[in-house]
Amino acid sequence: MCKSNDTVGSPYQQRGVALLALLTLLSLFGLYLFVGQLSATQFQLAREEKSAAALAEARQALVDEAVTRVSINDAGYLRLPDLGVNVGAPAEGYASGTFAEDGKDLSVIGKFPWKTLDTGPLRDSTGQCLWYVVSGRFKKDTDLLKTDVFNWDTLGQIDVINANGAFLAVNLAALLVSPGPALDGQSRALADAAYTECGGNYDARNYLDAFNGTNALAGQVNYYTDSTNNRVASDSNNKQFVMVVNYPHYNDRFTFLSVGQIFDPLIRRRDFRDAIGNLLDDATFRAHLQTIVVAGNKGTDNLLCTSATGADNREFCKNWKEMLFLAQLPSPSRITIDGGLSSDVCNRVLIFAGRRTAGQSRSTSTDKANRANYLEGVNATSFNVPTASASDFAGASVFNWRTPATDLVRCLP
Length: 413
What we know:
Number of strands: 15
Order of helices and strands: HEEEEEEEEEHHHHEEEEHHEE
Transmembrane segments: 16-35
Strand content: 15-25%
Radius of gyration: 31 Å
Largest sheet: 4 strands, antiparallel
Keywords: Membrane, Transmembrane, Transmembrane helix
């Protein structure tokens, strides 16, 4: 009987087994690389999620503290950052008070004031405490340094761009920043032994990117140059901050705080509704409005907030005056309030314009002079200065946060 060449242990079978083993090893190695890459990706995602969670918590703490202050006239302003000093001595975690370079409408960078806001130190995935940029118009500051007019149309002074200079967000009230690991020449050496929790120092350039101006994207770095610790804006113009992914000289991650995220909860307060009503129904204020010369684009050029009764009314009037419209009716008439005719015959009409709608813009002085950016329906059609083109006006008597764009109207006999 002839023997086959393919018996067990033959060179052919040995080569086949070796090839199968090699293929198995290659498959296992490929699986190892895949699992390793998957693990690295999962690890990176976990790190990003940790930073994002800390940033979100910091943002919520800022909003909660801002919109729950006792006085409605003090609500909405954001705490100054932690600048490394408390009551004149080195300390960390405290929101700054007024300081030497502070100025009206000047934005400021520092660390997140975790002790003032009682959150504990909030850190990103690399263990760095969070940083924080606040728009100058939104700073909680001394009365002399508060912005002149503060309401739901106030614009923040922070923009965010990508590597190409395209805008990702504009007119933000604040930024919460995860600084990530040090890049380039950044030094995070301990500046004072008092900084026992977050450590490091308070020079924004050592945390926010890019350290070298020659590496700036779209000509922008994420700090204010030419000031102590690169922390204070030189003017009230908007500043652009760069957020990119996987770029050698930038690893800052941001969470945005928009103006709407402050005023959305603020206007739900009952005392916000009441503050509007108190002003519109103040007898002394109404008497003033019945006698002044109606002038200007809104008819309120001669309106004096000092005529309102009480400091709270006067302060509210100062901040919200640009929502007020005043017109003389062409003849004494009744207007529509809450769907029915007013009980009094009106010689003049007073309107508190509602919140801006999607089709309205109130960014520039030209925008603010255009009644169509404030009034809707018959109010926009009839309003004119000094005398309305018609007596057809309609609106609500009480502010409702669920329909914030609705005009409020008052009859002035």
